Amino acid sequence: MGSGRLPKTIVCEHRTSLHPQMHVKTIPCKEKNIYEQDPDILPPSGAHLRWTEGGQVVSEAASVVVSSRSYADFTPEATFDIKKVDLHRLEEGPPLTSTLTREDGLKYYRTMQTIRRMELKADQLYKQKIIRGFCHLYDGQEACAVGIEGGITLSDHLITAYRAHGYTLTRGGTVREIMAELTGRREGIAKGKGGSMHMYTKNFYGGNGIVGAQVPLGAGVALACKYLGTDQLCVSLYGDGAANQGQIFETYNMASLWKLPIIFICENNQYGMGTSVERASASTEYYKRGDFIPGLRVDGMDVLCVREATKFAADHCRSGKGPILMELQTYRYHGHSMSDPGVSYRTREEIQEVRSKSDPISMLKDRMLSNNMASVEELKEIDIEVRKEIEDAAQFATTDPEPPLDDLCSHIYANEKSFEVRGATPWTKLTSHS
Amino acid sequence: MASLRSFLRSGKTFVILFVVTSCASVFQVNVRDALNQAMDEELERDERVFLLGEEVAQYDGAYKVSRGLWKKYGDKRIIDTPITEMGFAGIAVGAAFAGLRPICEFMTWNFSMQAIDQVINSAAKTYYMSAGFQTVPIVFRGPNGSSAGVAAQHSQCFAAWYGHCPGLKVVSPWNSEDARGLLKAAIRDDNPVVFLENEMMYGVPFELSEEMMHKDFVIPIGKAKVERQGTHITLVSHSRCVGFCLDAAAVLAKEGVECEVVNLRTIRPLDVDTIEASVMKTGNLVTVEGGWPQYGVGAEICARIMEGPAFNYLDAPAVRVTGVDIPMPYAKILEDHSVPQIKDIIFSVKKVLNM
């Protein structure tokens, strides 16, 4: 703080998204002179405070809402015990505790809630037939996407399979452009050309429809990281169903031989479509299936567990040791896709039990509330904001026009002058633009 | 002469590099060396280019196409892979996603079937699915079509299979000029290119001009070449069969039939304009290919001619000369009768011209 008069008002600005391009919200902390009360309280890291001449502190943000709870009441950070990780070919694993800052907690809460609400809205729109085709929902698995992103940076790379909406968000997509892609509109993240399974952002290679194909692709991205001499890595995700794919074992082999900086992550949600892990795999210890590749089995419902494991894995890769494999034990509330009610191969009781005992958002919320890291009102406020964001996005996604027919044949080739494409009949001559 | 013979018998070997004629410089380069030089020059030109595949490095290439490259460029840029096509093709495509420019070799295109999902679903379609966000600057190359005595599983032609798919460019060089210019173009292209070589052509020498030996010599993908001007009939072909067409044309010329021989060079995008212009000139068409007839390259050409302006200029139905519609047998006599021969081309031309 330095010398000078103590401030009268403090407004704290938190980055509320993981990606700098996402909009920033102002969350009020208090409007009281806290430093008189407790000079050791520091503003949360990342807060943007500006000191005026008169010793006043104001935020850069536009609007100010007063919180009734004093800032001094919130714990800025707390350390939590996390579940021990099962290890394969590793002497030691990630730490048994994780320190969460208030800022990160709110960020993870908001992002997980956004994914949750976005997926539920997609469910709604699908039932209204505004979204069509394939729609594989991620609710229940939020801690995986958010925890992984917490352990890497946006300059690292990530690729996943078709249950990809959550990752598209954590990798920098906006809810608006994701939903508009699901409804097949021109402002969709892939201009309506890709759909649910084919969304891309910088350093995020989709969204891939062919089970298992994304894993060697991810190793190729990792090869490029190594080739170009960066210290970036690639996270390559696949499910328990995909884990038996031959090309994944081919990739384990080459990644190990060439010491590629790749984190293989198996999101084990217990079911490959309608087939439980016991019915699909001779060995369900997916973290050991890499054989010569060290592995970790992690509680995928705990965002802190996932984050610590990812950090551990990232360190392993960046130190040049080659690939590492993480199995995240997680659960999906929805069926495999929107055409699967999800109860013919599992019981409603099972789904309910996971929801009540292991929900990732509830777990984080309980942690933060019981450690005084946030108030009930504050989290409710976030819920309201998220709901509004989703509503606005859904509204946009249903009113944005469909792509123009001129776009039908575009994007066949890159960096090519326009050429003619045969239409459905020999007289229909269409044009392709790059 | 006797002393020359005894010198040769003595077992000493010597190598003639090339013959330079007294006028303009002309180089004798076989297709293998043309491909090798093209890759060498492109590896040197752009650091992002690298080659991976089975035996490409320390073995110098299963067919020696990559001879010397590993010695020159090392492990980082010339990578020997295990025998796992689906895996390494996927890795190559992923590397292209992330900004490198891989050349992925299939030892023969028959083995690409193990990896065809990565070629089609991961490489060909991605630029479209991502609405232009994600480019895939990759070249898949290797020998295609029939060889000699390698039997059914090693003899298939994939021109029609890959030529079927939008998002890919599919190229099929015939001679050294084609091989050199098209491979350079393919490597410099920001799109996935399927490069179909031919093992029987690797050792065949052709003359390359000084201009063709220039390091920036590229042949545009998507343009066919008229190899021989003619007036009575158009022969359209690709790869090794172009040579057969020229041989057939030479024989037919003695009987007063002048064939125009069109070397497709590119299967996709197909240069329909050049074919149409030729057919509108000659009024007759025979397509010649090594692959199977059903749903093949010739079938596509005939359909396009029917649907376009050139149909009105045809004096007779267009006809295809193709490989026989059977898996490739082993015994030499059977194999010889499974592929189009020069006599089949001559026979078809005479039939079409009603001679």
UniProtKB/TrEMBL annotation, chain A:
Enzyme Commission number(s) of this protein: 1.2.4.1
This protein's record includes keyword Magnesium: yes
InterPro entries reported in the protein's UniProt record: DH_E1, PDH_E1_Alpha_Subunit, Pyrv_DH_E1_asu_subgrp-y, THDP-binding
The UniProt record lists the keyword Oxidoreductase: yes
Molecular function in Gene Ontology: metal ion binding; pyruvate dehydrogenase (acetyl-transferring) activity
Keywords, alphabetical: Carbohydrate metabolism, Glucose metabolism, Magnesium, Metal-binding, Mitochondrion, Oxidoreductase, Phosphoprotein, Pyruvate, Thiamine pyrophosphate, Transit peptide
Domain Dehydrogenase E1 component: residue ranges: 110-404
Required co-factors: thiamine diphosphate; Mg(2+)
GO biological process: glucose metabolic process; pyruvate decarboxylation to acetyl-CoA
Annotated localization: Mitochondrion matrix
CDD domains: TPP_E1_PDC_ADC_BCADC
Pfam families: E1_dh
Described function: The pyruvate dehydrogenase complex catalyzes the overall conversion of pyruvate to acetyl-CoA and CO(2), and thereby links the glycolytic pathway to the tricarboxylic cycle.
Name of the protein described by the UniProt record: Pyruvate dehydrogenase E1 component subunit alpha
Organism: Esox lucius
Automatic annotation (TrEMBL), chain B:
SUPFAM superfamilies from the UniProt entry: Thiamin diphosphate-binding fold (THDP-binding) (SSF52518), TK C-terminal domain-like (SSF52922)
Stretches assigned to the Transketolase-like pyrimidine-binding domain: 29-204
Main location, first listed in the record: mitochondrion
Catalytic activities: N(6)-[(R)-lipoyl]-L-lysyl-[protein] + pyruvate + H(+) = N(6)-[(R)-S(8)-acetyldihydrolipoyl]-L-lysyl-[protein] + CO2
Gene Ontology cellular-component terms listed: mitochondrion; pyruvate dehydrogenase complex
UniProt keyword annotations, A-Z: Carbohydrate metabolism, Glucose metabolism, Metal-binding, Mitochondrion, Oxidoreductase, Potassium, Pyruvate, Thiamine pyrophosphate, Transit peptide
InterPro entries: PDHB_mito-type, THDP-binding, Transketo_C/PFOR_II, Transketolase-like_Pyr-bd, Transketolase_C
UniProt-listed Enzyme Commission number(s): 1.2.4.1
Gene Ontology biological process terms from the UniProt entry: glucose metabolic process; pigmentation; pyruvate decarboxylation to acetyl-CoA
PROSITE patterns (UniProt xref): PROKAR_LIPOPROTEIN
Keyword Mitochondrion appears in the UniProt entry: yes
A GO molecular-function descriptor: pyruvate dehydrogenase (acetyl-transferring) activity
Cofactors, names only: thiamine diphosphate
Compartments reported by the entry: Mitochondrion
Catalytic EC class: oxidoreductase
Record text on subunit structure and interactions: Heterotetramer of two PDHA1 and two PDHB subunits. The heterotetramer interacts with DLAT, and is part of the multimeric pyruvate dehydrogenase complex that contains multiple copies of pyruvate dehydrogenase (E1), dihydrolipoamide acetyltransferase (DLAT, E2) and lipoamide dehydrogenase (DLD, E3). These subunits are bound to an inner core composed of about 48 DLAT and 12 PDHX molecules. Interacts with DLAT.
NCBIfam families: PRK09212.1 (NF006667), PRK11892.1 (NF008854)
Purpose: The pyruvate dehydrogenase complex catalyzes the overall conversion of pyruvate to acetyl-CoA and CO(2), and thereby links the glycolytic pathway to the tricarboxylic cycle.
Protein name: Pyruvate dehydrogenase E1 component subunit beta
Organism name: Esox lucius (Northern pike)
